[in-house]
């Protein structure tokens, strides 16, 4: 068992990481304040893990909302299902929502918790690698809009995070790989020794060796917790967690939510961000080569889709939430583990990097 605390003063919370955390309510039941609980999950995760969770909550009044599965359903219309159930079952401000699922469920449940009766408590039980290492931690919640990723949302921190590694036993390979993109991201942006550890252990990690997985989830969450504790609402440094995302979100939006998984789009996006850093002569090309190799060994794409053109890419990137005074701000690297947020990359250089990666002129 590896525990962490995200230090946010009175909104601090623990992150429990181990196999079978769910089966240890002595660790986490105290984070449910009242009797009312609403579990938010989806049609894939419910048959796998809902009964086991409910069995741990026999002293509570529990209802559930089973959402349709997929990024394409991460929108305002789906969110209404959560509000409808909460109101139909007379949930009041003392209720606790529990997100049981991947990042899509977590982001939607968290946003519902932020909005319902102006804010109720919630717990994250992430069931994908990506949600264990990233989306369940840090309090970014929200939904997509047809014109852009995560465009409607709120910062709302959970009461605790339970990363039960045994849930990963049923996770499909492609989804496991997608999670590895965000794991590798931490090495690139702020933890060079972790990147080197990943290079040395990638084969064992892809075999889902329990000890290696526990270490990778722990070090990812520890890195994210430090960044978020420093800058909860992304006034500055937190933006480094967005490495590759300005490119990646453009890919997800252009391809239709769900065709490229978030982690896959982030992988291709990180390669573009590193290529741009090399093009600007801020980064040694050896780091780009090593990053590409690690992402490939994790089963991830390292080039953007071949059906987008440069203008479409740049237009979608222009809607990024980091845009300030009409200027793109991108996360770039100056070294391994050293990220900066910069508006210095000229648009013609960005366009050249996109063309070099095979995006149509
Ligand atoms: N809030 C944040 O800070 C943050 C960070 C990173 C990503 N995100 C968001 O997270 C989302 C991506 O999350 P994701 O990669 O978890 O995708 P996801 O939630 O769509 O889950 C991936 C797939 O795996 C299935 N699944 C989940 N757990 C499973 C299990 N244990 N066994 C078998 N199948 C399982 C899901 O039903 C789904 O089909 C995106 O919407 C992204 O924008 C948010
Ligand atoms: O927690 C953060 O901050 C991140 O940026 C983590 C990202 O991996 C995640 O995809 C996040 O949802 C992106 O946020 P957005 O503000 O660019 O929508
Ligand atoms: Zn992400």
UniProtKB/TrEMBL annotation:
Keywords: Amino-acid biosynthesis, Aromatic amino acid biosynthesis, Cobalt, Cytoplasm, Lyase, Metal-binding, NAD, Nucleotide-binding, Zinc. InterPro entries: Dehydroquinate_synthase, DHQ_synth_AroB, DHQ_synth_fam, DHQS/DOIS_N, DHQS_C. Signal peptide: none annotated. Its main location: cytoplasm. The keyword Iron does not apply. Pathway: Metabolic intermediate biosynthesis; chorismate biosynthesis; chorismate from D-erythrose 4-phosphate and phosphoenolpyruvate: step 2/7. GO terms for molecular function: 3-dehydroquinate synthase activity. Zn(2+) binds at residues 182, 245, 262. Its EC number is 4.2.3.4. It holds the Pfam family DHQS_C. Residues 65-177 form the 3-dehydroquinate synthase N-terminal domain. NAD(+) binds at residues 69-74, 103-107, 140, 149. Its cofactor is NAD(+); Co(2+); Zn(2+). It catalyses: 7-phospho-2-dehydro-3-deoxy-D-arabino-heptonate = 3-dehydroquinate + phosphate. It is an enzyme of class 4 (lyase). Binds 1 divalent metal cation per subunit. Can use either Co(2+) or Zn(2+). It is found in: Cytoplasm. PANTHER family: 3-DEHYDROQUINATE SYNTHASE (PTHR43622), 3-DEHYDROQUINATE SYNTHASE, CHLOROPLASTIC (PTHR43622:SF7). Belongs to the sugar phosphate cyclases superfamily. Dehydroquinate synthase family. Catalyzes the conversion of 3-deoxy-D-arabino-heptulosonate 7-phosphate (DAHP) to dehydroquinate (DHQ). This is 3-dehydroquinate synthase. It comes from Zhongshania aquimaris. The gene is aroB.
